[in-house]
Design brief:
Blueprint: H1 6-29, H2 36-43, H3 47-53, H4 57-80, H5 86-103, H6 105-114, H7 120-150, H8 159-179, H9 190-201
Helix pairs in contact: 1-2, 1-4, 1-6, 4-5, 4-7, 5-7, 7-8
Length: 209
């Protein structure tokens, strides 16, 4: 087993401190009103130290997005791959997603409100990474839907279509919640989302028409 050197441990600790400070300042002031000097002061480092880790403010911000999507993907992957009924796993993943967004609302609201102003080259680089994770997640979700179909929990629809439909509903609720002028509990919408989706997907429902 490789033992991390003291210097490497300190480097990683400094990087984490910078990211935590950047998240606080971005959430408070928004992306375009934040400066690297402000992040450095919050992290209690010199501004030059920040540039040893991140080449620009954009690089720092999109690193945060990348690591946050890693955080939620790791959690949902563990849930989707465990042994349990399909609907139970899908329900738990929905709550994971909604709770994660609630904890990080101010941060992700920045991207919703200001994302169109980012440089396209940077936006595309970040978007590609996030898209790759989303594709992996959708295919993993589709496997769970297939398992639910095999056990008779769900109707025999195309599992990939079910995964896209489910996430489409979830993302529309998240987007509306992010842009709504008055804050409300996103998690409170979980039962509505499940009702809309599973009422049409559960095996045994009467056919319409």
């Amino acid at each position: 087993m490789d033992v991390m050197s003291r210097k490497e441990r300190e480097r990683l600790a400094h990087r984490s401190e910078i990211l935590r400070a950047a998240e606080k300042v971005f959430a408070l002031k928004g992306f375009f009103q934040t400066t690297m000097n402000e992040i450095a002061r919050t992290a209690e480092f010199g501004t030059g130290t920040l540039y040893k880790f991140f080449k620009s403010k954009e690089d720092l911000y999109f690193t945060l997005i990348d690591e946050k999507t890693d955080e939620i993907y790791t959690k949902v992957q563990a849930e989707l791959t465990r042994e349990a009924p399909a609907i139970e796993r899908i329900t738990n993943v929905l709550f994971f997603e909604l709770e994660f967004m609630e904890r990080n609302r101010d941060f992700f609201k920045i991207y919703t409100s200001e994302g169109g102003r980012f440089e396209w080259s940077i936006q595309n680089e970040c978007g590609k990474k996030v898209h790759e994770k989303m594709v992996r997640y959708i295919h993993l979700l589709a496997q769970v839907f297939q398992q639910g179909i095999d056990t008779g929990e769900l109707k025999s629809f195309n599992p990939l279509d079910l995964a896209h439909a489910f996430e489409g509903i979830v993302h529309s609720f998240i987007f509306e919640w992010l842009i709504h002028p008055e804050p409300y509990s996103l998690v409170s919408k979980a039962e509505t989302i499940l009702g809309i989706f599973l009422t049409g997907a559960k095996e045994g429902k009467e056919e319409i028409g």
